[in-house]
Every structure is written in C-alpha cells, then in structure tokens.
C-alpha cells in the first residue's frame, strides 16, 4: 500500500478526514527513523503555518461584529471546531472551566456520599449547592472554602464571588432523580432515555447512538458521565480503548482522558465534549449539548 492508494475515502465529515490521516500515519510508522523524523518536521512546519494564518484571520474577523458572528456560527461545524481547537484558537468556555474545577473536588465529595452542583453563572459571581450527604453536613463550610472555592478561584480568576446556596436541588424536576451530572445546568427538558443503569459497567463505558450522535456513558461508583465518543485528537471513537483507574486511552494514538471530567491528560489544552446525564429510577437519560 502507498500514499496514493489510500486517498479514496468519502471525506464529507470529520471522521472521513481523520480516517485518511490515520491511514497515512500507519504508513509513516513503517518507515525508518530518519524518514519519520523528516515527515514529523514537515508536519510541524505545515501546522505552524496554518495555525499562524488562522490566528491572524481570527484576529481580523474579531474587529467586525458581523464577521465575528459569522465566525462563531462557523465554529459550530464539527470540522471547523476540531481544527480551531487543535490549534488552541478556541478556548474552553467559562462554564466548561468552572465545571472542570468542580470535577476536581467531586471524587472527595463522592467518597462521603455527596456532590456539588453549579446553580448559576453570573460573572463575576457563581452559585453552587451541595447535595447528598454534603448538604447540611457540619463540615460543609470547610469543604466549601478549602475545596470548591479554591478550585474555582484557581481555574477561573475572573470569578471573584463564589456563593453557596441552600435548599433542595430542582435541577432534575423530578422526585425520583438521584443523580444529575454537572453539565445539566438546571435543564428541565430535552432529556432522552438511553439505557438502564445496569447496562453501564462499573468502571467502564457503554457506547450508544442518540439522534445520530455517538456518545459514551461512563459509571464510576455513584457518578455517571457522558461525552461525545470522539477523541479530541482526530475524532476517532474511544469506546474500544483500555480503561484503568477512571482513565480511558484512545485505541488509535494513546491519548488519555479522565472519564469524570473529560480532561485530556495527554494534551491538557483539549477535552472531550460533555453531555448532561441523569438517573431517574434505574433509567439513564441524556440531554445532548449543541
């Protein structure tokens, strides 16, 4: 097989382009070290040139409101989004950074049967609420200041007021909901039944398709998470990857992701796209993000 033979796929989506790149990399891997080094140097030079061109283009477009609006709309396309994220031009949103910070303290809270949910984001302030056994716990004030407040302040310095609110969570809108993911943002509609909770293996993942979207569901103790089933590197499926200690490894290029937060441990500037998930009785429901 040679490079000419493989450029025959239908490339109308991200997976098509990623597949071609994957097959080319398979060819390069068979070459000697000198040849591989030359290809890698060439790749970096092309990526550096493209990245700089994109950054200059974006800077210019940002100066015109109409162009900026069109650019934001274009970024909803999966291919445009993937390329801009790869070049670190698109940054995680404030909400994503807040949620990531909260994910860092969730294992500690889960160990005591509790959790924390994001109630509202109104920069420079946010509101959070403890749920489960952490709600009303005598140590919750210490946990709030030493854990939640510190994590958010470090991840999002523009947030200066981090407030703890009391009361029963209304995020799920149903009395028999006993888990709501941090990405739900209080949503009351748009939920789709996906599977029974027993179909998600403890410490593993279950890959499903919802409205044509490929997602993976992960279960770690009482905590569930849901992400787009696409590696942030080239968009290839993750569900065949090895899972150990809450980390999934892309079966193609070895990129590793935290299954609680979606954070990429290999390249921290990228992450998996999260979706809201909740458990109603024994039923797992998902609300797809846009």
Automatic annotation (TrEMBL):
A Pfam family annotated for this UniProt entry: NifU
Domain Rieske: 192-286
Molecular function (Gene Ontology), one example: iron ion binding
Biological process terms in GO annotation: iron-sulfur cluster assembly
InterPro entries, per the entry: FSCA_dom_sf, NIF_FeS_clus_asmbl_NifU_C, Rieske_2Fe-2S, Rieske_2Fe-2S_sf
Keyword set includes Methyltransferase: no
PROSITE patterns, alphabetized: RIESKE
Cofactor(s) of this protein: [2Fe-2S] cluster
Key words of the record: 2Fe-2S, Iron, Iron-sulfur, Metal-binding
Family in the record: Belongs to the bacterial ring-hydroxylating dioxygenase ferredoxin component family.
Name the record gives this protein: Rieske (2Fe-2S) domain protein
């Amino acid at each position: 097989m040679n490079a000419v033979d493989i450029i025959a796929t239908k490339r109308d989506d991200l997976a098509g382009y990623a597949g071609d790149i994957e097959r080319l990399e398979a060819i390069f891997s068979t070459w000697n070290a000198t040849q591989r080094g030359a290809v890698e140097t060439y790749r970096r030079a092309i990526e550096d040139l493209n990245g700089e061109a994109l950054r200059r283009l974006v800077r210019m477009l940002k100066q015109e409101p109409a162009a900026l609006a069109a650019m934001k709309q274009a970024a909803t396309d999966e291919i445009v989004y993937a390329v801009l994220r790869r070049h670190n031009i698109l940054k995680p949103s404030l909400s994503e950074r807040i949620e990531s910070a909260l994910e860092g303290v969730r294992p500690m809270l889960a160990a005591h049967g509790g959790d924390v949910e994001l109630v509202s984001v109104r920069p420079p302030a946010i509101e959070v609420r403890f749920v489960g056994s952490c709600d009303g716990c005598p140590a919750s004030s210490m946990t709030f200041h030493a854990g939640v407040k510190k994590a958010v302040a470090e991840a999002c310095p523009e947030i200066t007021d981090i407030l703890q609110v009391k009361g029963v969570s209304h995020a799920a809108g149903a009395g028999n909901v006993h888990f709501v993911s941090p990405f739900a943002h209080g949503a009351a509609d748009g939920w789709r039944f996906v599977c029974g909770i027993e179909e998600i293996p403890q410490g593993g993942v279950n890959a499903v398709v919802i409205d044509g979207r490929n997602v993976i569901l992960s279960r770690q103790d009482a905590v569930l998470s849901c992400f787009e089933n696409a590696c942030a590197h080239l968009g290839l499926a993750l569900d065949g990857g090895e899972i150990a200690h809450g980390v999934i490894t892309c079966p193609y290029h070895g990129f590793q992701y935290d299954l609680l937060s979606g954070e990429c441990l290999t390249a921290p500037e990228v992450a998996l796209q999260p979706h809201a998930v909740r458990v109603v009785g024994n039923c797992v429901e998902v609300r797809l993000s846009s």
